Amino acid sequence: MSDNANECRICFETEAPDNIFIQPCACKGTSKYIHESCLNTWRRTADNIEARKRCMECGETYMISRIHPLEKNPCADSLVLNKSLSKSVRNNLFFGFCGSILLCWVDGPTQTSLTVFSFGNNWYNHTIGKAIRKGDTTITIPYYIALTSFIQNVYIFCFFYYKIYKNIKRYRNFLEYIKYELFFLNLTLMNFLVIFWGCHEIGIHPFGFYIVIIFMMMGAGFNYVIPPSLTVISKSSIKYLNEKKNPETVLNVTHNPLNTVIEMLSNDMLSNDMLSEQTYEELATESEQSEEVVEFKSDID
Questions:
Q1: What's the pLDDT score for residue 4?
Q2: How far apart, in whole angstroms, are the C-alpha atoms of residue 135 and residue 25?
Q3: How many C-beta neighbours within 10 Å does residue 175 have?
Q4: 6 and 35 in contact (C-beta within 8 Å)?
Q5: pLDDT tens figures, 219-254
Q6: Mean pLDDT comparison of 180-184, 263-267, 295-299, highest-scoring range
Q7: What is the pLDDT of residue 106?
Q8: What pTM, to 2 d.p., does this model score?
Q9: What angle do CA 270, 276, 282 make, to 5 degrees?
């Protein structure tokens, strides 16, 4: 190895085509060069947090970049998938309560939902339907709470997938990381239909349909866990994309446009001071010259 060959200040090896040098700070001389991989490894393993942000020798702050832009949770400020779990739960319970009242008022007189979900067979017409027509609140309220939670979560899932597709650049990686959680939550969403279709044989009996109502209420309870669960797994997936799948790298100051701009700004600021001094000198010179011209003219006269 030549004595004049530049060395990495960490591993003391020379530059290689697959392991190039960068100049990440203001260090000079033998500390000027460092392998990009060595610096990134040093920053990842350093116990001192400051050592991850700036050079501990010259004190220069590193210009840090990432491969991909940082992703943000597009649902964080929404009412139903708010980043605050308490707000998410509160809002969904409120919308569920109001939706249940509205749906009971609209659907109660005709029980159209019973006909639609049974494909026109009216499985529950003489049990649940009859109780609704009589105004039996012990049946009416649980049924419409369960139905509302199902409709509400169908909307939430559609909203969630739409926002992810439109706003997350790496949405495939986002969904891949939480695919098992999403699969389970989608199964949970379907509990109302599973109970409605799977228990219709029980539901035609005068007292057996109470079991169906109990199952529906249990399913509604699970449904109201879905929105906060989506909030938690979304936050986890965003963190995974930004940290695990988007490593940091330190920019080379000799090719760093940001550093160039900073240098230009600094030079401009310095040059402004120099220009002010230069302008003062020029004005003073012009003033002296003008006085000499006046004196020369007076001598001629």
A1: 61
A2: 77
A3: 15
A4: no
A5: 888 888 999 999 999 999 999 999 888 887 788 776
A6: 180-184
A7: 92
A8: 0.68
A9: 135
Residue 179, classified by CB atoms within 10 Å of its CB into exposed (0-12), middle (13-18) or buried (19+), is: exposed
CA distance 228 to 225: 6
Angstrom distance (rounded) from CA 80 to CA 91? 6
Same domain, 223 and 135: yes
Token pair listed for 217 = 């209420």
244: DSSP letter: I
As a whole number of angstroms, the distance between CA 118 and CA 210 comes to 18
Q: Which residues pair with 35 in a beta bridge?
A: 21
Beta-carbon contacts of residue 217 (< 8 Å; ≥ 6 apart)? 142, 145, 146
C-alpha torsion angle, residues 257, 259, 262, 267 (rounded to 10):
-100
CA angle 127, 111, 217 (to 5 degrees): 65
* Residue 200: both structure tokens together: 């219709």
Task: Tell whether 190 is covered by a domain.
Answer: yes
Domain extent for 45:
1-62
Answer yes or no: do 179 and 234 share one domain.
Answer: yes
Shared domain check, 235 and 89: yes
Structure tokens at 150: 């199902």
* Residue that wins the pLDDT comparison between 41 and 168: 168
Domain count, the chain: 2
**Residue 53 contacts residue 250 (beta carbons within 8 Å):** no
| The token pair that represents 154 in the structure block | 């169908």
Burial-class residue 170 by CB neighbours within 10 Å (0-12, 13-18, 19+).
middle
Block residue for tokens 């970049």:
65
Nearest by Cα to 64 from 105, 25, 122: 25
* Integer CA distances (angstroms), 148 to 75, 92, 143, in order: 22, 11, 9
Helix (H) or strand (E) holding 64: strand 64-66
Query: If you average pLDDT over residues 276-282, what whole number do you get?
Result: 42
Q: Is residue 108 part of a domain?
A: yes
